[in-house]
Structures are given as structure tokens and as C-alpha cells.
Amino acid sequence: MAIGLLGRKVGMTQLFDDSGNVVPVTVIEAGPCHVLQVRTKDRDGYEAVQVGFGDMPRRLAARSVRGHVAKLDSKRSKARAKSGGEPLSKAGCEPQRFIREFRGAADGVEVGQTLDVTQFAEVKRVDIVGTTKGRGTAGVMVRHNFHGQRATHGVKKVHRHAGSIGQSQFPGHVPKGRRMAGRYGNERSTMRNIMVVGVDAEKNLLLVRGAVPGPRGGYVMIKETNKL
Amino acid sequence: MSQQILNLVEQKSLKGEVPTFNIGDTVDVHTRILEGEKERIQIFNGVVIARAGSGTRETFTVRRIVAGEGVERKFPLHSPKIAKIEVKRSGIVRRAKLYFLRDRVGKAVRLRERRGDVVEKS
After folding, report:
1. How far apart are CA A12 and CA A212, in angstroms?
2. What ipTM was predicted for this assembly?
3. Contacts of B67 by beta carbon, 8 Å cutoff, 6+ apart
4. I want to staple A185 with a disulfide (CB 3.0 to 4.6 A). Which of A43, A85, A107, A135 is the partner?
5. Which regions of chain B are under pLDDT 70?
6. Are strands A33-39 and A48-55 parallel, antiparallel or unpaired?
7. What pLDDT does B52 receive?
8. What is the per-residue pLDDT for B118?
9. Is A204 exposed, middle or buried (0-12, 13-18, 19+ CB in 10 A)?
10. Would the CB atoms of A22 and B76 count as touching at under 8 Å?
């Protein structure tokens, strides 16, 4: 199974499939991604592959970020060398804007290796993780799809309100988890089992059917689905 | 940059050669219809009253009167299901959307015909 990939949502469009039907498509600029670190059971307590996407200018990257991707002399590395510890292997790439870990065994993937969309060429369906568009403080109708109240029949100034939020003296409080207005969006969201429509290895593009969470330009994680 | 990538992706779904027709033209739209195994061509004849969208999303609307009732059909311009668009007559119109035709009945529906122009047969 492929490791997975990070990418950037480019936007949506529509294409025609072989039988001439319209297919809504999201275009994702996926990879190439650098493998920055491999988490192992003995060292980190779990297995995962850390992957970075999108170069960041070195002048904007903190020293720790630069040191994470390339060899940088530091007190710590000197101390490590002195005590006989072998130097950590680094990817040797530019600082990365978007870094995430994919859980699971490394499968022979090594630090410094680059991953690209060709791993999805044979894959039929993927899971995509993104951050939904932030909507700020949203009312109950937008946030929870409440119906609001009537336009007439004596309803005053509460047309978009929720209505009752509980009983009276018994139980005397509002139940926990009662859905109300508040911050909406800007949270992690996973779309499962999305069909892969096409892969453009040359331009590093992945086309998937339907929508993907987040705004255009938003970062996403893509992995082969385990849902069947 | 993003738009350029999207245009590039759409490129494959676009028809290389888009039949030329204008708003106000009376056209025959040849559509491919799959009936079981057999493919059949159906013709929808009417006046082009609107064109909208761009890229693969470009559509055009054809209006005709069937049994005294107005019927409009919207076609995706680049759809492979559209085999051919034949211009039968060109009307003289001064606007891009002929929605005013919806309010007209009978003889008033007719558009003045453009004469002397070379009507391209596709």
C-alpha cells in the first residue's frame, strides 16, 4: 500500500467521461513530497512516515525548521557526535511549508526520498483530509441546519433562532452538547472513499471526483482508502 | 496559476473544433442516444436563445415550440454526446440572451432572418 501524499487544492472543474457524462472534478496539486523522517517503534514508540510538501524560502524558516530538513551544526548535534551517537539522517531539501505524518510501517521508504502522484496511478479510491473553510461565528441554521422559526404567526425577531433549549426547573440546566450558535468551520475533516478520476504525473496533478474540504489553495493529505 | 492548471485539465475534455453558431440561429442539434446496445441520433431543432459559461462548462440553450408548448433544452457545448450542430437559419438579434421569446406566442416568436450571409454548414 502506498504511503500517501500531501497536496494543495487547486480548484474544481468538470470533465466528460468515456460515456459522455459530466464528472465534477477537484484538481489537487499532489507532491512531489520529501520524506523528512521515519518514525520507528523503538525510537518513537510508533511507526509512521513524516512527509513535507511545498518549499519555503530559507529566510522565512526558523533555524529549527531548517535543521529539521538539512544538516545544520548545532550544540545538540555536536553533543550527540561527542557521545558517539550516529548523526540523524536528514532529507537535505528546502524547508517545507506543510508537514504531516502518515501512520504505518515505512515499507522501505527512506529519509530523503521523494514521493509523487504515480503511486496513485493504480489506486481507485482515496481518503482526503483537509481543513474546512472557516465560517466564524455562525448561527444555528448555518451551523446545524436547524429550520429556524416561522416568518409570521406572531414570531418576533427570532426567525433564525433555535427555539427551546431545554425544560424547566427539572432538570434546571441546559443539557451538555445542546447544539447552539458558535464557531463553525476551520476544522479537520476527512472525505472517505473518493474516486480517483485521473493522474497527471508530469504536472503532479491528481483529479478526484467531487468536492474536497477546504478553500482553493488549502493543504490536503491524500491516502489510499481502507474503506471498501 | 491555479486557473492555468484548471484550463490545462479541461483541455482534454474540450472539443477541438467547436461548431460556429450564433444567438438567434435556428439549429439542428444531433445528440447521440444509447438505447441498450444501439446508438441512435436524435435531432432537436430550435432557436438558440442563450450561451453561458466557459471552458468545459459552456452550455447553450435551444428553444422550440412543441404542440403549442415552449420546450427548452440546455446542452453542454463540449459534450461528446452532441454529434453535430447544424445551422438552418440565422436570425437578426441585438442581444445575447433571447429570454424575451418566452413571453411571445405564435407569429411573434419569429425572428428576422439574416439574408445574404454565408451560412456555414457543418
Report:
1. 9
2. 0.77
3. none
4. A135
5. 115-122
6. antiparallel
7. 92
8. 53
9. buried
10. yes
For residues A158 and A140, is the Cβ–Cβ distance under 8 A? Answer: no
pLDDT, position B122:
45
pTM of the model: 0.83
pLDDT of amino acid B49: 93
Rounded to an integer, what distance in angstroms lies between the CA atom of residue A16 and that of residue A46?
A: 44
What percentage of chain A carries pLDDT values higher than 70?
99
Chain B CA closest to residue A10: B2
Q: Which residue has the cell 515499507?
A: A107
Q: What are phi and psi of B60, to 5 degrees?
A: -135, 150
CA–CA distance, A88 with A82 (Å, rounded to integer): 14
Strand A219-224 and strand B26-35: the pairing is unpaired
Which run of H or E residues covers position A96? strand A96-103
Tell me the average pLDDT across A191-210. 91
Which chain A residues have a beta carbon less than 8 Å from that of B5? 10-11, 27, 29, 203, 205
Record: contact B10-A15, CB cut-off 8 A:
yes
- Decide: A128 and A208 in contact? Cβ < 8 Å: yes
The model's confidence at residue A106, banded by pLDDT at 50, 70 and 90, is confident
Chain A residue numbers with beta carbons less than 8 Å from the beta carbon of B80 are 16, 20
Report how far residue A57's alpha carbon sits from residue B44's, in angstroms, rounded to the nearest whole number. Answer: 58
AA identity, residue A207: L
